[in-house]
Amino acid sequence: MRNHAVWWSCGLVVLCLSLPALGWRINEELKEEIAAKKAFVAAHPNDAHAHFDLAITYAYTNHIQEGWDELGKAIKIDPDFKPKGLDMYIRKVTASPADWKLRFRLAFAYYFNSNKDDAIRELENVLKIDPDNVWAYGYLALIHGEKGDYDAAMAKARAGLKIDSQVAALHLLLSEGYYKKGDAWRGFLERWEALRLKALGF
Question: How far apart, in whole angstroms, are the C-alpha atoms of residue 160 and residue 16?
Fold first, then answer.
């Protein structure tokens, strides 16, 4: 679980810094979803799927570290959960192809089975259904960065910023891309903008 590429490690920290701004806000529906899934986990503490389900809800509601912790619990409870979870979400998405939340979960299931290209495809499918999903753009940037495709990673970060220019996480992801490509000045400027937005509460 902890042996991911440096890009993912940096990106996890990056996404943790962001607060909702223009294009994304945690609404009452998402708050209720978190509460319901937390309650289910509390009632079923040894259910690996419950922890995974909560983890991915956290992933698209700006609770990144909590999500990471829940993913770790799912694998600890059931070391074979990765392939089983993937099979389950393939079936769920096949049955409900227009449900972007299921596709978000399928993307993570692919990712944790080392199928990054399939994860990218499913996150792109999320955007077809929910075009303003800044977290899908963020995770696309992370995965492209892991694959060493920094141009694609930066393009996804920029696309997310067109939706919400005040998401500090996306500025930091763009900054990482500039640094990777040897453009320290623009990397510094993007990082500074991210820190400025963070200081303002974004």
Answer: 16
